[in-house]
Amino acid sequence: MITSLFFCLLMIGSLELLLVEGLNPPNIKPFHFSGDLREGLRTAVICVIVDGDRPFDFKWFKDADPLLQEKGHFSIQIINEFTSILNIERLNAESNGNYTCRVTNSVGSDEKSDVLMMKGEIHFTESRNGTHL
Ligand SMILES: *[C@@H]1O[C@H](CO)[C@@H](O)[C@H](O)[C@H]1NC(C)=O
Ligand SMILES: *[C@@H]1O[C@H](CO)[C@@H](O)[C@H](O)[C@H]1NC(C)=O
Description:
This protein is of the alpha+beta class. It has helices spanning 2-20, 120-126, and strands spanning 27-28, 43-51, 57-62, 65-66, 74-80, 83-88, 97-105, 108-116. It has a 4-stranded antiparallel sheet with strand order 1-2-6-5, with no helix packed on it. Bound molecules: 2-acetamido-2-deoxy-beta-D-glucopyranose (NAG) (2 copies).
């Protein structure tokens, strides 16, 4: 019992030490999908951590689901300790959604999201503007 109390105090002590050392939680720069996307194109967004202390752990989500490399037309690259790119290699009917980059370090986390909404329908209508020759 005394041992676990001691251990507990030790934990609190080291936590305080971390806080005193001034470790900062991550802060992600907002990202935005291009406004002119349609089926068949490719696109990418970049998740850049502008503030906070290393090491960081990156996670990408589409709606609530974690994005896994193996699942088809995505690829995720960790460029360096504070940058990750989400590539969508071929936009299709299932690409629309709310994409989130979440970054965690030892003292906190941050996340930024953007909604990908393709304009396929609009392009289709625009190209049929009644000019028949
Ligand atoms: C996208 O997802 C994030 C994180 O779950 C949420 O905070 C945000 O409100 C969502 N945006 C839209 C437009 O649904
Ligand atoms: C639609 O109209 C624009 C100009 O108003 C024209 O340049 C274009 O060729 C037209 N598109 C078609 C498919 O007729």
